[in-house]
Design brief:
CATH class of the largest domain in chain A: Mainly Beta
Number of helices of chain A: 10
Number of strands of chain A: 48
Oligomer: homodimer
Largest interface: A-B, 35 and 35 residues
Strand content of chain A: 25-35%
Number of domains of chain A: 2
Radius of gyration of chain A: 21 Å
Shape of chain A: globular
Distance between the termini of chain A: 30 Å
Largest sheet of chain A: 12 strands, mixed
Strand order of the largest sheet of chain A: 45-46-21-20-18-16-14-11-6-3-1-47
Chain lengths: 472, 472
């Protein structure tokens, strides 16, 4: 295992060099978070389809349990049960625009991970990267459990557990536990835990969780041990994934309607109904629920005892329990909608649950239609300061409501959200009508098969994956 | 599936160009032998160990169900449920000697398959190839079901089902059903079905099956459909392999003694006992049998209701039923020892069952110790012309016995056999005592894990495997 030990040391040193200004030492986190033998137990798998560009290159890395789709290269990195999806990468010749300046892609875009350590991290593209649009880069980065990385120049970054860096450029920054940032260049910034921050040139939204709340849900000790309600909740479903990950070709479910896709690496348990053009991604867990037409459950979603009326989007890591979501409801990254049989949650149609929202119901909670909700909600009365009508927000310029502040162009903010949600539905194929134009992930992934990669089991290379090039 | 169809056409044309002088057209055999959808159903797997050189390159090929170990490259070929083992390839700098002339390997030796179609073919190295010792080549070759290819320059060759070309150089030749040849350059030769031919500079053994016998056991029609007792026998065990090939990490059996190895891709069924340093290779099937110390069952062996006293070798494709084999007994390639409860077979210690022997017992059959047996035996009386004492054979120069003739140096012939059997035992690790020097396949393959490769499932590439380079 010498090589794997050297790799941990190498990554720690590279990340620490970059994070020195922030006064953080990732070495103990990185070296202790996952017991070594687990890096050998799980296999990596890459999806093979004719609809996605195929090109993988893996060198000097451990890829335990990691899923790959599309063009990816990994060097000197440890990817543990992560999910790298390159199915929205741009192509050679595509024109991209940043702040009104246009440029054309010289090569096909590729996800390139170097000197990084990702634990159960979801990496999805559709990048907004003005630096090198050909490269979706993750460099010298440590991302802890259930973090999300979207649209990066992600260099020298530490992400705490359940943190999200969205559409982001960052350099040498620390993003605290369960923080969500969509704020561009964050060089030499430390984001405190439980902050939700959306910033653009024309608007800014800011919310910080009340003191003492985040720790109840997410707590990482200095040796990388994760506790709290989130991990307790998802750990209960771990065993459901074992049979799926032990089989070369997991069985396809019967009764999946036309245009819909349930990944063979998703769990569908109990009484479920899946609507037309719905998409249940790999690593999603759906139990005793109704997923309506064009709705989706993205990676690391856990949906239980819930009803989706249709065209719903559950972003990566959303957990939705005893909840009725009306049509078009959006649940943002890593949100936790924890209803119970006694205290169910209802979200009215067209509403937006902001990323990193916790609704942990201590009484029945009803979110009105066409609203935005955020922050920490346990009682109806919390909605007074954590929920607004989208129509009202559209007219706003400056609002302070509880721990949240909004400044800037309210209409632009709401439109940006709506536009993005619509984009997600289109990309997922929610409106598929048989035409090529309406095909999305749900349809393109239908004929995927999975190639399964394992590491050396003994000797100095124990735990390392062989150098491998696929597709070119 | 356009690409796969083109590939069939391409291979057929290349092989036919070479086999024109022999008047054979392989196209219908090659195009019809395997239903197209089967080429998509099965996955290829390569073994990853730190004891074997790692380097695979696959381009423009279908690899359905094929197993790879060691350095291999495959281009423009269809390998169907075949087995390519590069674990005895030579290394850069090794000195090889041919007819007294020595030469040094410039590169590591690699198995290279080009423009070929192999069905359930066993390819194993330890080559005797004076042409390019760096390349174990299989070029423009069609090999049908359960054929064996060893030590080649195998160019422009057709092998019928259950045929074996051993330690061989060949060019543009046809080897009939169930023929065994170990005879060097066979350019423009057609070997009739059921011939067993061993030829060197100093001895020659020849046996041809009586008319009408081979067809009962092996019959291939012009469209590649295989019938006969051999395929009927092995088809009965097909289902036993299904669970093994559906699991990412088949379970290791308990109670395997130190130094022994049972491949996770072998079947052990009923009451079996496996001795110390024994080796049960992938695709071997062992049922209700005792496999003694240092004994082995190589690929495609089927051993049932039998006892091996120890240090036995069952070469590739040997089928052994209701047989008691004494110590050191060797069963050659594709031999069929079909005893029954009523009519068991006994083979005395140190005896050699020649390759491609059929003992289909119609009464109890007993092979004395220290004997060679060959050909077609159903009754005791058949042994009179098909079995000799190895001591007698050692003293012989010219012998004609039934359909068999032997000419040349009997002692050299017996010594060559014994030397080779001993080599097999050593290579397999039958004498492992904990020292590095005595380690063999049984010990080196202990920590193997398997990487699993699947083809495209749709589009023009349907059935083709992606281009892939592993290990360099």
């Amino acid at each position: 295992m010498e090589k794997l030990e050297e790799l941990f040391e190498h990554i720690a040193s590279r990340v620490n060099v970059n994070l020195k200004p922030m006064g953080i030492d990732v070495r103990p986190l990185l070296e202790n978070a996952i017991p070594r033998e687990r890096h050998m137990l799980y296999y990596a798998f890459y999806a093979l389809t004719t609809d996605h560009p195929l090109s993988f290159k893996f060198t000097n890395s451990n890829l335990a349990g990691t899923y790959f789709l599309g063009k990816t290269s990994v060097d000197r990195s440890v990817l543990y049960k992560s999910d790298l999806r390159g199915d929205e990468l741009k192509s050679k010749g595509d024109i991209v625009e940043f702040n009104g300046v246009k440029t054309k892609l010289f090569y096909d875009e590729v996800i390139r991970v170097i000197n990084s350590f990702l634990v159960k991290t979801l990496v999805h593209n559709h990048s907004k990267n003005p630096e090198i649009p050909e490269v979706f880069r993750i460099l010298n980065t440590v991302a802890m459990h259930f973090s999300n990385i979207h649209g990066t120049t992600c260099e020298g970054v530490y992400l705490g557990p359940f943190a999200t860096v969205d559409l982001s450029v960052m350099h040498n920054c620390v993003v605290g536990d369960f923080s969500y940032v969509q704020a561009g260049d964050l060089s030499r910034v430390t984001i405190e835990p439980g902050r939700v921050w959306v910033k653009s040139d024309i608007f800014e939204f800011n919310y910080t969780y009340p003191e003492g709340v985040v720790e109840k849900y997410v707590k990482l000790d200095e040796n990388g041990k994760l506790t709290g309600k989130f991990i307790e909740y998802v750990d209960d479903f771990k065993d459901d994934f074992i049979p799926i990950y032990s089989t070369v070709q997991p069985e396809q479910l019967d009764g999946i309607p036309e245009g819909a896709y349930v990944s063979p690496y998703a769990v569908i348990k109990g009484e479920c109904k899946i609507g037309k053009n719905a998409l249940i991604a790999q690593r999603a867990h759906v139990e005793d629920s109704f997923i309506g037409e064009g709705a989706n459950a993205q990676e690391n979603c856990y949906i239980k005892n819930s009803t989706y009326d249709g065209f719903n989007v559950t972003a990566h890591g959303g957990k939705v329990i005893h909840t009725h979501a009306g049509k078009n409801v959006f649940v943002g990254f890593n949100s936790f909608l924890h209803g119970t049989e006694e205290y169910p949650i209802t979200v009215g149609k067209d509403s937006i649950v902001m990323p990193h929202t916790i609704i942990d119901a201590e009484e029945p909670i009803e979110i009105p239609e066409n609203s935005a909700v955020w922050g920490y909600v346990t009682k109806k009365s919390d909605l007074e300061t954590q929920c607004v009508s989208l129509d009202d927000l559209s007219k706003a310029t400056d609002v302070t409501l509880g721990n949240a502040t909004f400044t800037g162009d309210g209409k632009a903010f709401v439109d940006a959200f709506r536009h993005r949600i619509e984009h997600i539905r289109e990309e997922n194929g929610a409106y598929f009508d048989g035409s090529e134009k309406t095909r999305g992930h749900a349809q393109k992934t239908q004929d995927a098969c999975f190639n399964i990669l394992q590491p050396f089991q003994s000797g100095p290379e124990k735990g390392m994956y062989p150098t491998m090039t696929i597709g070119e």
